[in-house]
Design goal:
Layout (H helix, E strand, L loop, with lengths): L1 E5 L6 H12 L3 E5 L5 E3 L6 E4 L2 E2 L5 E4 L6 H13 L3 E2 L3 H8 L1 H10 L7 E3 L7 H7 L5 E5 L8 E4 L2 H13 L4 E5 L7 E8 L2 E9 L14 E4 L4 H14 L3 E9 L2 E8 L5 H7 L3 H22 L2
Parallel strand pairs: 1-2, 1-6, 6-7
Antiparallel strand pairs: 3-4, 4-5, 8-11, 9-10, 9-11, 12-13, 12-15, 13-14, 15-16
Helix pairs in contact: 1-9, 2-3, 5-6
The structure holds adenosine-5'-triphosphate and magnesium ion (2 copies).
Length: 302
């Protein structure tokens, strides 16, 4: 099988590990920088030109699309899908998961727990009311498309909350406002889901005095065994968003696990190092299973 990793940086831990896992399983591995692919769309069918040559014979792709290139990256994933390649993460699901608001709407419809969240259309003068919607202070304000913990603010008082909302809206930045989950104590849980199974889980504890647990913000990761409810929440979230490979972030609260967000290109370094699990290998196994099934159904249908 020929499996391509869509990644802009071949030196990233995740890219290197996936490359290695593909080769270890006896397949041909290649890395394609999606940001410099040209997409050709014509009557004879879709094709991709990469470094001056037509991309041919790719059986499956593993998209690793950074948040800043979601639009172009997902167009490339879609093109591969149209060309018949199996995508470990579906293009529509990536788009869905990138929008925090849309994801939370879908997760709430699926009956999953989450911090109470409010969204408003730059309402001038309505800041006080938004703060009340989520139960007053302390509260969390986040940019809709932030990542690595940047653009997440904790407001300790109602007044501070209102000013931050005003400031973001003044800059025309879209935000969500959320109840602050105190019991989480600056920690969150990352469950790594592959093909309807939790293949690894870690708890990330924020640095001293930091409410954000992101590893990029100095958080520390340790392996954790999930409760039954946490496992069910992680699997439910990945399923609701249509992601076969996902990093589900949850907070532990007095009312059970609360989903924060679901990542469609979750990093492998933190989770593999914390758990010792060969997560890259699990992703390759999943692809093998899907592509085999696809080939056998097409034979059966002939
Ligand atoms: N409602 C909340 N209550 C308590 N802590 C929170 C809340 N929301 C976020 N946090 C903390 O802040 C961190 C960053 O928030 P979140 O994951 O939503 O942002 P992000 O910038 O998208 O991060 P990522 O890099 O994981 O995409 C969380 O991991 C968690 O530790
Ligand atoms: Mg995020
Ligand atoms: Mg997060």
């Amino acid at each position: 099988m020929k499996i391509a990793i869509l990644s802009r940086n071949p030196n990233l831990y995740s890219t290197k590990r996936l490359f290695q896992a593909i080769q270890e399983a006896g397949h041909e591995a290649l890395i394609i920088n999606h940001s410099v692919c040209d997409l050709i769309i014509e009557q004879e069918g879709p094709s991709i030109i990469y470094k001056g040559e037509k991309v041919l014979g790719v059986d499956a792709i593993i998209p690793r699309i950074g948040a800043s290139v979601t639009f172009y990256g997902t167009a490339v994933v879609r093109q591969f899908e149209l060309m018949g390649a199996f995508a470990a993460v579906n293009s529509q699901a990536i788009v869905r998961s990138r929008d925090k608001l849309r994801s939370l709407q879908i997760l709430s419809k699926a009956g999953l727990g989450m911090p109470k969240t409010a969204f408003t259309n730059f309402s001038k003068g309505g800041e006080k009311q938004i703060v009340e919607h989520v139960g007053g202070a302390p509260l969390i304000i986040k940019l809709l498309e932030g990542t690595q913990g940047l653009g997440v603010v904790l407001a300790e008082t109602k007044k501070a909350g209102q000013s931050v909302i005003e400031a973001f809206h003044g800059l025309k930045a879209r935000i969500i406002v959320q109840e602050f989950i105190k019991e989480a104590k600056g920690a969150d849980i990352r469950a790594f889901v592959v093909n309807g199974k939790v293949v690894g889980a870690m708890k990330r504890q924020g640095a001293e005095g930091e409410f954000r647990s992101n590893l990029h913000r100095g958080g520390m990761a340790t392996v954790i065994k999930l409760s039954r409810a946490e496992k069910a929440a992680a699997l439910g979230a990945a399923k609701a968003l249509g992601l076969d490979v996902a990093g589900v972030d949850m907070l532990q609260s007095a009312r059970g696990p609360l989903i924060l967000e679901v990542n469609s290109s979750p990093g492998l370094e933190g989770i593999e190092k914390a758990t010792g699990v060969n997560i890259a290998g699990e992703i390759v196994k999943f692809i093998e299973e899907k592509v085999k099934k696809k080939t056998s159904t097409s034979v059966n249908n002939q």
